[in-house]
Design a protein that fits this description.
The complex is a heterodimer of chains A (168) and B (127). Chain A has helices spanning 30-64, 80-96, 155-165, and strands at residues 4-7, 18-21, 26-29, 105-108, 114-120, 123-129, 138-143, 146-150. With 168 residues, chain A is α+β, with helices and mostly antiparallel strands. Chain A has a domain at 72-165. In chain A, helix 1 (30-64) runs antiparallel to helix 2 and helix 2 (80-96) crosses helix 3. The longest helix of chain A has 35 residues, at 30-64. The two termini of chain A are 23 Å apart. Chain B is an alpha+beta fold and 127 residues long. Chain B has one domain. Chain B contains two helices and six strands. Chain B has helices at residues 70-74, 105-117, and strands spanning 9-13, 42-45, 64-69, 79-82, 91-95, 121-124. In chain B, the strands form two sheets. Chain B has a three-stranded antiparallel β-sheet with strand order 1-3-6. A three-stranded antiparallel β-sheet of chain B has the order 2-5-4. The longest helix of chain B is centred in the C-terminal third of the chain and has 13 residues, at 105-117. Chain B is globular, with a radius of gyration of 14 Å. Classes of the chains: A alpha+beta (168), B alpha+beta (127).
Chain lengths: 168, 127
């Protein structure tokens, strides 16, 4: 554990172990340190849950704005399949990162599919979830003159390239 | 065949309100037309003096136009040629785009992004 330094003041009495807590930069008893550590971990897990819920809510709110857009027979509304497909990828993001995530631009492709596009500091990701199962989801990534596509996209590949987008 | 001069403006209809923020989507061909085949050319127009009543792109739903120049399109190895229709003398097409099919997705996305970067201005639909 890299967050504590323990100094044994009295080798015959373990309760008198004094610990330097680098979070508060104070020396505390082992009992106090244990309580603080527990509280910190509890807060950390709470914040993970809050971030996950916030990300998920943010994604869904922006995604479902698509239902308010104008469509016609030449520019089709996204299908339920496309919504379900993109939600699978977005939920995987929410669960994989303990931080507030950038919300993409959601764009209907006009053929019943949905695109989610991020651009951060010259790095671009385009997640494309088509209208129907015959057309597989894919991820296009680009930075300068370097670009490629991951076809028949799996969640693990998506998470990996999202980490790249965030420069992590 | 009539040649569209290099400095001619070329307009691409904005079919989704969201294309204004993310332009590459506007420059992808469709995977499948009503006849089941992939779209081969990207429809554009050479004149866009649209009014509230008349849409030069003949779209049911249109939010405006992206303006490009013919020479900028050709710089990408593409071409833009007249494709006059009975009801639309200003109709033209960007040709030589990779079809939006499984084998070409990578290049189709790339070229869509490059075309998006060639957009000079956005003309919104008159209200």
């Amino acid at each position: 554990m890299n967050f504590l330094k323990a100094t044994k003041l009295n080798s015959n009495d373990l309760s008198n172990i004094s610990i330097y807590d680098i979070h508060t930069e104070t020396t505390v008893s082992s009992e106090e340190f244990a309580i603080r550590t527990f509280e910190r971990e509890q807060n950390r897990f709470s914040s993970i849950e809050i971030n996950q819920q916030e990300n998920s809510a943010n994604f869904r709110e922006r995604l479902f704005e698509l239902t308010q857009d104008e469509y016609d027979e030449e520019f089709l509304a996204p299908t339920n399949f496309a919504y379900q497909s993109i939600l699978k990828f977005l939920d995987s993001l929410s669960k994989s990162f303990n931080k507030r995530l950038p919300v993409p631009n959601f764009i209907p492709d006009g053929e019943g599919g949905i695109r989610a596009e991020w651009e951060i500091q010259g790095r671009e990701l385009r997640l494309v979830c088509p209208a129907k199962p015959d057309w597989k989801p894919y991820l296009y990534h680009e930075e300068g003159n370097s670009y490629d596509v991951k076809k028949d996209l799996k969640v693990g590949t998506f998470i990996k390239w999202f980490s790249w987008l965030l420069n992590e | 065949m009539e040649i569209i001069p290099p400095h001619s403006p070329i307009y691409r209809a904005i079919k989704s309100n969201r294309w204004k923020e993310k332009k590459p989507s506007a420059f992808l061909l469709r995977r499948q037309l009503a006849n089941g085949k992939p779209e081969e050319e990207l429809s554009v127009i050479t004149k866009a003096d649209c009014t509230k009543e008349v849409c030069f792109a003949k779209q049911n739903t249109c939010f405006g136009e992206f303006k490009l120049l013919a020479e900028h399109i050709r710089e990408l190895g593409l071409d833009v040629v007249p494709r006059q229709l009975d009801d639309n003398p200003y109709h033209a097409a960007i040709i030589n785009l990779p079809l939006y099919i499984e084998e070409n997705i990578k290049e189709a996305e790339r070229i869509a992004g490059l075309l998006a970067k060639k957009v000079l201005s956005v003309q919104l639909r008159p209200k």
